[in-house]
């Protein structure tokens, strides 16, 4: 680590005790900071994490001014909204507020590659990590992907790379965060339960490149109308990628990183490459990694857990876990990639989505719909006139109902289009419970 004394003796309160807050609390405590943690949730997960923290004051189920007043710094976890009490108090008391990835950035000695976008972040961050590993580099894949940046930091050395998935929530509270390569994969309407409109959401995404300069790179999706003109707003060298696998750079640079490889990268073209592969290939080109090595990584890539994950088959009915689908555009991707008739399980906590936007595609792909969670009435109102709708009180019940409605040759698809936080701690838990329900169903039918 670098700047190890930066947080020493500082009084720091961390808001949120999920994965990133827990990792940040441990790290700062080890570096000599006076750490406190506050979380409005008092449940099995937060209590479990609280027990594991040593010599750190923890407040669960409420927020009190005593843990905010007279602090040197407030570190905010991604899920904490801007109108949360600790944020309001920190502003009132003029206490600086930063995110967990800003803390890690201050201490990180490695080259950071940061990936954001509405969809595909986890996949691309993973692919970049695997490309670097295949090239013989030491790489840490972390961030919003599951392994917090702060949690990996003690193992990260100067000559390593960090492939970092970052959400708009995490970018809201950065100050000096400056990745060597930043990638914005795509942009569509999402998180309108948090942002007033899509432009405010885009503004948060654009923060990923706000500190970049002429020695850095910004990778953009040329085919996304909301992104292609962002070259005008950055000092970084812009590299565009296309869904065809073609990519180009907007300007040359004297930067030391892969300067001799850029002409080859500009002329490289790989037909029929999906956008996630194309974006990863563009990053490989910047780093001077052989194109054939990248393509070899893609050929071996079987996808990620909870993203169009094949679970099992019973009576010629396939079960697919797409729990990571938390918005409409992600569901469109799923529908287009599944050829069988679909019995859909959807619902959860609404993110301000307009569910009518997907109706035309659903009418051609979806036979039956089972709704769960807080948003089921809103979704039903949008779909009931055009689709066969059923409700379930739990995901386990939804799986049983879906199986009873499915016929041989169908696919039961969990593709919620909503966040998981009404019924589950995260989308991973939702996906695991879906898979367990499927396995239980198969055992009972055996």
If you had to describe this structure to a student in words, what would you say it looks like?
With 446 residues, the protein is of the alpha/beta class. The protein folds into three domains: 11-95, NAD(P)-binding Rossmann-like Domain (Rossmann fold); 102-300, UDP-N-acetylmuramoyl-L-alanine:D-glutamate ligase (3-Layer(aba) Sandwich); 309-445, Mur ligase, C-terminal domain (Protein-Tyrosine Phosphatase, Chain A, Alpha-Beta Complex), CATH 3.90.190. Helices cover 34% and strands 19% of the residues. It contains 16 helices and 18 strands. The protein has helices spanning 19-30, 44-52, 85-92, 100-107, 121-134, 149-152, 168-171, 198-206, 262-267, 275-286, 291-300, 328-337, 359-365, 376-383, 395-405, 427-445; strands at 11-15, 34-39, 57-60, 73-76, 97-99, 111-116, 139-143, 161-165, 181-184, 217-221, 237-241, 247-249, 309-314, 317-321, 342-346, 366-371, 389-391, 411-414. The strands form three sheets. A seven-stranded mixed sheet has the order 7-8-6-9-10-11-12. The chain has a six-stranded mixed sheet with strand order 13-14-18-15-16-17, sandwiched between helices. A five-stranded parallel sheet has the order 3-2-1-4-5, sandwiched between helices. A hairpin with a 2-residue loop joins strand 13 and strand 14. Helix 5 crosses helix 10 (275-286) and helix 15 (395-405) packs across helix 16 (427-445). The longest helix has 19 residues, at 427-445. Mean pLDDT is 89; it is low at 251-271.
């Amino acid at each position: 680590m670098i700047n190890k004394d930066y947080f020493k003796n500082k009084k720091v309160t961390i808001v949120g005790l999920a994965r990133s807050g827990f990792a940040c609390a441990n790290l700062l405590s080890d570096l000599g900071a006076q750490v406190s943690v506050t979380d409005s949730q008092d449940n099995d997960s937060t209590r479990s994490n609280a027990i594991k923290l040593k010599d750190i004051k923890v407040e669960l189920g409420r927020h009190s001014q005593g843990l905010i007043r007279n602090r040197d710094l407030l570190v905010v976890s991604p899920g904490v909204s801007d109108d949360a009490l600790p944020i309001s108090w920190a502003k009132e008391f003029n206490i600086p507020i930063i995110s967990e990835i800003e803390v890690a950035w201050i201490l990180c000695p490695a080259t950071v590659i940061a990936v954001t976008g509405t969809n595909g972040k986890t996949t691309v961050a993973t692919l970049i990590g695997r490309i670097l590993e295949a090239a013989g580099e030491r790489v840490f894949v972390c961030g919003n992907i599951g392994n917090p940046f702060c949690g990996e930091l003690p193992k990260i050395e100067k000559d390593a790379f960090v492939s970092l998935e970052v959400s708009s929530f995490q970018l809201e509270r950065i100050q000096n965060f400056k990745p060597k390569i930043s990638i914005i994969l795509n942009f569509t309407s999402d998180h309108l339960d948090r942002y007033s409109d899509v432009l405010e959401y885009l503004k948060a995404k654009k923060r990923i490149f706000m500190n970049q300069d002429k020695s850095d790179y910004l990778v953009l999706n040329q085919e996304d109308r909301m992104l292609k003109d962002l070259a005008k707003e950055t000092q970084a060298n812009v590299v565009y990628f296309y869904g065809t696998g073609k990519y180009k750079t907007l300007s040359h640079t004297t930067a030391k990183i892969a300067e001799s490889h850029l002409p080859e990268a500009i002329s490289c073209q790989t037909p029929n490459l999906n956008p996630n592969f194309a974006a990863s290939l563009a990053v490989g080109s910047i780093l001077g990694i052989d194109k054939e090595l990248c393509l070899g990584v893609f050929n071996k890539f079987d996808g990620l857990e909870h993203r169009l994950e094949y679970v099992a088959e019973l009576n010629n009915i396939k079960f697919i876990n797409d729990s990571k689908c938390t918005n409409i555009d992600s569901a469109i991707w799923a529908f287009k990639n599944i050829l069988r008739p679909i019995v859909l399980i959807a619902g959860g906590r609404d993110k301000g989505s307009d569910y009518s936007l997907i109706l035309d595609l659903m009418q051609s792909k979806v036979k039956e719909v089972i709704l769960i969670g807080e948003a089921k009435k809103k979704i039903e109102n949008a779909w009931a006139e055009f689709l066969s709708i059923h409700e379930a009180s739990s995901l386990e019940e939804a799986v049983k109902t879906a199986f009873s409605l499915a016929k041989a040759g169908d696919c039961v698809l969990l593709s919620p289009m909503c966040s998981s936080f009404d019924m589950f701690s995260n989308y991973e838990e939702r996906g695991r419970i879906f898979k367990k329900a499927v396995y239980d169903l198969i055992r009972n039918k055996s």
